[in-house]
Design a protein that fits this description.
The chain has eight helices and seven strands. By secondary structure, the protein is of the alpha/beta class. Helix 1 crosses helix 6 (150-172) and helix 2 (20-30) packs across helix 3. Bound molecules: S-adenosylmethionine (SAM).
Protein backbone atom coordinates (compact mmCIF):
# COMPACT_ATOMS: atom_id res chain seq x y z
CA UNK A 1 0.00 0.00 0.00
CA UNK A 2 2.77 2.48 0.90
CA UNK A 3 4.58 1.70 -2.37
CA UNK A 4 1.41 2.79 -4.20
CA UNK A 5 0.92 6.08 -2.36
CA UNK A 6 4.61 7.08 -2.04
CA UNK A 7 4.58 9.79 -4.77
CA UNK A 8 1.79 11.79 -3.09
CA UNK A 9 2.46 10.76 0.55
CA UNK A 10 4.24 13.94 1.68
CA UNK A 11 1.77 16.31 0.02
CA UNK A 12 -1.21 14.55 1.61
CA UNK A 13 0.47 14.49 5.02
CA UNK A 14 0.90 18.26 4.94
CA UNK A 15 -2.58 18.89 3.48
CA UNK A 16 -4.54 16.60 5.82
CA UNK A 17 -2.73 17.77 8.96
CA UNK A 18 -2.98 21.46 7.90
CA UNK A 19 0.83 21.55 8.01
CA UNK A 20 0.98 20.52 11.68
CA UNK A 21 3.04 17.40 10.86
CA UNK A 22 6.22 19.52 10.43
CA UNK A 23 5.99 20.77 13.99
CA UNK A 24 4.98 17.33 15.39
CA UNK A 25 8.11 15.72 13.94
CA UNK A 26 10.29 18.62 15.09
CA UNK A 27 8.96 18.23 18.64
CA UNK A 28 9.52 14.46 18.52
CA UNK A 29 13.09 15.02 17.28
CA UNK A 30 13.74 17.30 20.27
CA UNK A 31 12.78 14.49 22.68
CA UNK A 32 15.93 12.47 22.12
CA UNK A 33 18.93 13.18 24.37
CA UNK A 34 20.77 16.40 23.64
CA UNK A 35 24.29 15.14 24.46
CA UNK A 36 26.45 13.61 21.76
CA UNK A 37 27.69 11.52 20.06
CA UNK A 38 24.38 9.83 19.24
CA UNK A 39 23.47 6.75 17.20
CA UNK A 40 19.86 6.91 16.01
CA UNK A 41 17.53 4.65 14.04
CA UNK A 42 14.17 5.85 12.74
CA UNK A 43 11.91 2.82 12.19
CA UNK A 44 9.17 2.92 9.51
CA UNK A 45 10.97 6.05 8.32
CA UNK A 46 8.89 6.29 5.12
CA UNK A 47 10.05 9.35 3.18
CA UNK A 48 12.52 10.20 5.99
CA UNK A 49 10.89 13.37 7.36
CA UNK A 50 11.60 12.47 11.00
CA UNK A 51 15.17 11.43 10.16
CA UNK A 52 15.66 14.83 8.47
CA UNK A 53 14.23 16.61 11.54
CA UNK A 54 16.57 14.59 13.80
CA UNK A 55 19.64 15.46 11.71
CA UNK A 56 18.69 19.15 11.70
CA UNK A 57 18.06 19.29 15.46
CA UNK A 58 21.11 17.26 16.49
CA UNK A 59 24.42 18.10 14.79
CA UNK A 60 26.16 15.59 17.10
CA UNK A 61 24.39 12.54 15.59
CA UNK A 62 27.19 10.24 14.38
CA UNK A 63 25.08 7.43 12.92
CA UNK A 64 21.57 7.95 11.53
CA UNK A 65 19.66 5.13 9.87
CA UNK A 66 16.11 5.13 8.54
CA UNK A 67 14.48 1.74 8.02
CA UNK A 68 11.30 0.96 6.10
CA UNK A 69 9.74 -1.99 4.28
CA UNK A 70 8.58 0.11 1.30
CA UNK A 71 11.24 0.65 -1.39
CA UNK A 72 9.16 3.39 -3.04
CA UNK A 73 8.88 5.39 0.19
CA UNK A 74 12.64 4.97 0.71
CA UNK A 75 13.34 6.18 -2.85
CA UNK A 76 11.42 9.43 -2.14
CA UNK A 77 13.31 9.70 1.17
CA UNK A 78 16.75 9.23 -0.44
CA UNK A 79 15.96 11.95 -2.95
CA UNK A 80 14.92 14.29 -0.12
CA UNK A 81 18.06 13.59 1.92
CA UNK A 82 20.11 14.52 -1.17
CA UNK A 83 18.12 17.71 -1.79
CA UNK A 84 18.52 18.78 1.86
CA UNK A 85 22.29 18.12 1.71
CA UNK A 86 22.00 15.38 4.36
CA UNK A 87 22.82 12.30 2.28
CA UNK A 88 26.27 11.99 3.86
CA UNK A 89 24.82 11.96 7.39
CA UNK A 90 21.82 9.63 7.03
CA UNK A 91 21.32 6.31 5.26
CA UNK A 92 18.08 4.55 4.42
CA UNK A 93 17.76 0.76 4.46
CA UNK A 94 14.99 -1.70 3.63
CA UNK A 95 13.78 -3.92 6.46
CA UNK A 96 11.05 -5.03 8.81
CA UNK A 97 10.74 -2.87 11.93
CA UNK A 98 9.47 -5.82 13.94
CA UNK A 99 12.57 -7.96 13.20
CA UNK A 100 15.57 -5.82 12.27
CA UNK A 101 19.03 -7.19 11.64
CA UNK A 102 20.75 -4.64 13.91
CA UNK A 103 22.71 -5.99 16.88
CA UNK A 104 21.38 -5.65 20.45
CA UNK A 105 21.93 -2.21 22.04
CA UNK A 106 23.14 -0.60 18.77
CA UNK A 107 21.42 2.77 19.24
CA UNK A 108 21.11 5.59 21.77
CA UNK A 109 17.70 6.58 20.42
CA UNK A 110 15.05 4.73 18.44
CA UNK A 111 12.28 6.80 16.88
CA UNK A 112 9.13 5.86 14.98
CA UNK A 113 6.53 8.26 13.55
CA UNK A 114 3.10 7.05 12.48
CA UNK A 115 4.54 3.58 11.99
CA UNK A 116 3.82 1.43 15.02
CA UNK A 117 0.08 1.54 14.30
CA UNK A 118 0.83 -0.12 10.95
CA UNK A 119 2.87 -3.01 12.30
CA UNK A 120 1.01 -6.30 12.81
CA UNK A 121 1.95 -6.56 16.51
CA UNK A 122 2.77 -3.23 18.22
CA UNK A 123 3.89 -5.00 21.40
CA UNK A 124 6.43 -7.09 19.43
CA UNK A 125 7.63 -3.87 17.78
CA UNK A 126 8.14 -2.30 21.23
CA UNK A 127 10.16 -5.39 22.25
CA UNK A 128 12.35 -4.89 19.17
CA UNK A 129 12.82 -1.18 19.97
CA UNK A 130 13.83 -2.11 23.52
CA UNK A 131 16.32 -4.69 22.20
CA UNK A 132 17.93 -2.12 19.87
CA UNK A 133 18.44 0.51 22.60
CA UNK A 134 21.64 0.84 24.59
CA UNK A 135 21.09 1.08 28.36
CA UNK A 136 19.94 4.62 29.16
CA UNK A 137 18.73 5.12 25.58
CA UNK A 138 15.39 6.68 24.61
CA UNK A 139 12.45 5.49 22.52
CA UNK A 140 10.40 8.30 20.96
CA UNK A 141 7.21 7.27 19.22
CA UNK A 142 4.91 9.71 17.44
CA UNK A 143 1.46 8.34 16.67
CA UNK A 144 -2.05 9.51 15.95
CA UNK A 145 -4.51 9.56 18.85
CA UNK A 146 -7.99 10.95 19.44
CA UNK A 147 -8.77 14.19 21.35
CA UNK A 148 -9.97 13.58 24.93
CA UNK A 149 -12.46 16.47 24.68
CA UNK A 150 -15.80 15.08 23.37
CA UNK A 151 -16.60 18.03 21.08
CA UNK A 152 -13.13 18.15 19.55
CA UNK A 153 -13.20 14.37 19.19
CA UNK A 154 -16.50 14.55 17.30
CA UNK A 155 -15.15 17.23 14.94
CA UNK A 156 -11.94 15.28 14.40
CA UNK A 157 -13.85 12.06 13.65
CA UNK A 158 -15.85 13.92 10.98
CA UNK A 159 -12.54 15.08 9.45
CA UNK A 160 -11.10 11.53 9.66
CA UNK A 161 -14.14 9.70 8.28
CA UNK A 162 -15.23 12.13 5.56
CA UNK A 163 -12.52 14.62 4.61
CA UNK A 164 -9.47 12.33 4.84
CA UNK A 165 -10.80 9.54 2.56
CA UNK A 166 -12.18 12.07 0.06
CA UNK A 167 -9.06 14.26 -0.26
CA UNK A 168 -6.83 11.16 0.04
CA UNK A 169 -8.62 9.44 -2.84
CA UNK A 170 -8.63 12.59 -5.01
CA UNK A 171 -4.92 13.34 -4.61
CA UNK A 172 -3.46 9.82 -4.43
CA UNK A 173 -6.03 8.00 -6.55
CA UNK A 174 -6.09 5.33 -3.83
CA UNK A 175 -9.38 5.34 -1.93
CA UNK A 176 -8.58 2.17 -0.01
CA UNK A 177 -5.34 3.53 1.52
CA UNK A 178 -7.05 6.57 3.03
CA UNK A 179 -10.00 4.48 4.31
CA UNK A 180 -7.43 2.28 6.03
CA UNK A 181 -5.87 5.42 7.56
CA UNK A 182 -8.96 6.52 9.43
CA UNK A 183 -9.89 2.97 10.48
CA UNK A 184 -6.40 2.25 11.82
CA UNK A 185 -6.32 5.54 13.77
CA UNK A 186 -9.71 4.89 15.36
CA UNK A 187 -8.86 1.34 16.37
CA UNK A 188 -5.35 2.05 17.74
CA UNK A 189 -4.65 2.12 21.49
CA UNK A 190 -5.28 5.36 23.37
CA UNK A 191 -2.44 7.08 25.25
CA UNK A 192 -3.04 5.35 28.63
CA UNK A 193 -3.16 1.86 27.07
CA UNK A 194 -0.13 2.53 24.89
CA UNK A 195 1.91 3.83 27.85
CA UNK A 196 0.97 0.67 29.78
CA UNK A 197 2.15 -1.43 26.82
CA UNK A 198 5.48 0.42 26.78
CA UNK A 199 5.92 -0.30 30.48
CA UNK A 200 5.11 -3.99 29.90
CA UNK A 201 7.81 -4.02 27.20
CA UNK A 202 10.33 -2.90 29.84
CA UNK A 203 10.52 0.85 29.32
CA UNK A 204 10.81 3.18 32.31
CA UNK A 205 9.92 6.87 32.76
CA UNK A 206 7.17 6.43 30.15
CA UNK A 207 5.22 9.55 29.21
CA UNK A 208 2.65 10.70 26.66
CA UNK A 209 2.54 14.28 25.38
CA UNK A 210 -0.62 15.27 23.47
CA UNK A 211 -0.12 17.42 20.37
CA UNK A 212 -2.72 19.68 18.69
CA UNK A 213 -5.55 18.92 21.15
CA UNK A 214 -4.59 15.25 21.20
CA UNK A 215 -4.86 14.33 17.51
CA UNK A 216 -1.31 13.02 17.84
CA UNK A 217 0.85 12.06 20.82
CA UNK A 218 4.55 11.75 21.49
CA UNK A 219 5.34 8.70 23.63
CA UNK A 220 8.71 8.60 25.32
CA UNK A 221 10.31 5.84 27.33
CA UNK A 222 13.82 4.95 28.46
CA UNK A 223 15.72 1.71 28.69
CA UNK A 224 17.02 1.38 32.23
CA UNK A 225 20.71 2.19 32.50
CA UNK A 226 22.74 -0.74 33.75
CA UNK A 227 20.54 -3.83 33.78
CA UNK A 228 18.48 -3.23 30.55
C1 LIG B 1 2.29 6.37 7.79
S1 LIG B 1 3.87 6.00 7.16
C2 LIG B 1 4.94 6.92 8.23
C3 LIG B 1 6.21 7.33 7.54
C4 LIG B 1 7.11 8.30 8.29
N1 LIG B 1 7.60 7.75 9.52
C5 LIG B 1 6.43 9.61 8.55
O1 LIG B 1 6.55 10.16 9.65
O2 LIG B 1 5.79 10.15 7.65
C6 LIG B 1 4.08 4.36 7.74
C7 LIG B 1 5.34 3.70 7.22
O3 LIG B 1 5.51 2.47 7.92
C8 LIG B 1 6.09 1.55 7.02
N2 LIG B 1 5.91 0.22 7.61
C9 LIG B 1 4.75 -0.42 7.89
N3 LIG B 1 4.99 -1.61 8.46
C10 LIG B 1 6.34 -1.73 8.54
C11 LIG B 1 7.21 -2.73 9.03
N4 LIG B 1 6.76 -3.86 9.57
N5 LIG B 1 8.55 -2.53 8.93
C12 LIG B 1 9.04 -1.39 8.38
N6 LIG B 1 8.26 -0.39 7.90
C13 LIG B 1 6.93 -0.56 7.99
C14 LIG B 1 5.38 1.82 5.71
O4 LIG B 1 6.08 1.32 4.60
C15 LIG B 1 5.31 3.35 5.73
O5 LIG B 1 6.41 3.94 5.08
Amino acid sequence: MFDRIAPTYDLLNHLLSFGRDFSWRRQAARCIGAGGPLRVVDLATGTADLLIALLREHPHIVDAVGLDCSEEMLAVGRDKLRRHGLAARGRLVAGDATRTSFADESFDAVTMAFGIRNTPDPRATLDEIHRLLAPGGAAVILEFSLPANAVLRWGYLVHLRLVVPLIGALVSGDRQAYRYLNQSIESFHGPAAFCAMMEQAGFCDVSAQPLTAGVASIYRGSKAAGNG
